[in-house]
Amino acid sequence: MAIRKIMHIDEEKCIGCGLCTKGCAESAIKIINGKAKLISENLCDGLGNCIGHCPVGAIQIIEREADEFDEEAAAKHLESLDKNQTSQAHGHGGGCPGSRAMAISRNEKPKASTAVSIGDIEIKIKPQLSQWPVQLMLVPERATYFDGKELLVTADCVPFAYPNYHLDLLKDKSVVIGCPKLDDVNYYVEKLTNIILNNDITGVTVAHMEVPCCNGIVMAVNEAVRRSRKNIEINRVKILIDGERER
């Protein structure tokens, strides 16, 4: 053993999203019981590439006594992973099945729909979600489902307050959701900037509630578009607490 730099995970902060796994070239991080774990000291090179992928600041590089980094052991570890495990460790699944990035195809006759009955008339509403995940902290910064679409940035109360969310706002768009009051708006700005830079986004709609704290997500979108230096139009939609859309 020697005193060297090695990654450290604060398990109390860790939310188990698995995003850190894509920054680890040696696949030394694994989600175990809902928390990120360093599976072996000799697999960690101490460079800290995983740090920037953590949305909650749960990872840092510290100096302590630890096994030396073993490049040969790391290579053998990667070889031992099957193709699917290797894919997940580098972000195609984020180490957590619930945050695996995927596009959702929509047929003319979807397998599921929401039925609304008005007297003897039943209205079926087709779901319009075309991707997973949707939470801004979990979506990848580069995904094919962003390309050629308008990006809908939604304050997470909007779909609950606005009954026509799927057909009026979500249809034909990619989407990310978040709460500017509960989360770090600076992180939102950085993440949205990277999404706009790394994908062929045709426009941005930001949907927010009328409450003052919700203006934070509007600010984040405006700043992200400014930083991207792309000529992208921003459409702002305000939803009132009573469920109406402000005209």
Automatic annotation (TrEMBL):
InterPro entries with a match to the protein in the record: 4Fe4S_Fe-S-bd, Corrinoid_activation_enz
Domain of life: Bacteria
Pfam families: Fer4_21
Domain 4Fe-4S ferredoxin-type: 5-34, 35-64
PANTHER family, A to Z: IRON-SULFUR CLUSTER PROTEIN, IRON-SULFUR CLUSTER-BINDING PROTEIN-RELATED
Name the UniProt record assigns to this protein: 4Fe-4S dicluster domain-containing protein
Organism field: Proteiniborus ethanoligenes
